[in-house]
Design a protein that fits this description.
Length: 199
């Protein structure tokens, strides 16, 4: 019974669930973050590369170019730093098998107040999904943020760092774009954080 429950939490093509993948990522990150500053630098990534090749019974002495390429691959959000979130995103992608698919949230009945906020969010999402792809890309985020704050009576002009931060919070599967469901999840989390009763 327990194994069938566990199997039902593992997406097709995955070898573990999200929490297990995050655990693997944390263990991996902690074993290479020697200075414990929360960021993997070139000196910490090179041994990771060497060990990965050792695991395949191959020797490898990475060049600076190899390390730079590896750093770009590991830096999932493009902020120039390899953090635990970057390693978790890769672990989820390769161990769980979630790629380009938003985590599914069970349908719930929300209060009228919450549904009104979600309706506004849906209208804004459709308005700023300029190419009609069903996703918001980083290029479409600034106008979305400006309009969202404007609807609350606040003048706000987001910086590039604000946009990147918003993407990190919202793009749950780290595919570089935000689905409507991911955007709704952000709205719900924000309302919960503000202490608003959801149901």
């Amino acid at each position: 019974m327990a194994s069938s429950v566990l199997r039902s939490q593992i997406p097709l093509g995955g070898i573990c669930d999200v929490e297990s993948a995050k655990h693997v990522a944390r263990r991996l990150f902690e074993s290479y973050d020697r200075d414990r500053n929360g960021i993997l630098d070139q000196g910490e990534v090179a041994p990771m590369m060497v060990d990965a090749y050792k695991g395949m019974s191959k020797g490898f002495n990475p060049s600076k170019s190899d390390i730079d390429t590896y750093l770009r691959i590991l830096d999932r959000n493009g902020d120039g730093k390899i953090t635990i979130q970057d390693i978790e995103a890769l672990a989820i992608k390769y161990l769980v098998g979630i790629t380009g698919e938003s985590p599914k949230r069970p349908k719930r009945q929300y209060s009228k107040f919450v549904e009104e906020r979600l309706d506004v969010a849906r209208r804004l999402f459709r308005k700023f999904d300029q190419d009609g792809s069903g996703f918001i890309t980083e290029n479409e985020v600034p106008q979305l943020l400006i309009e969202t704050y404007k609807s609350m009576g606040i003048h706000y002009n987001p910086t590039q760092e604000d946009v990147k931060s918003w993407m990190r919070m919202t793009d749950l599967n780290d595919d570089g774009q935000v689905s409507l469901e991911e955007y709704e999840d952000l709205v719900i989390r924000s309302l919960q954080h503000a202490g608003i009763q959801l149901e």
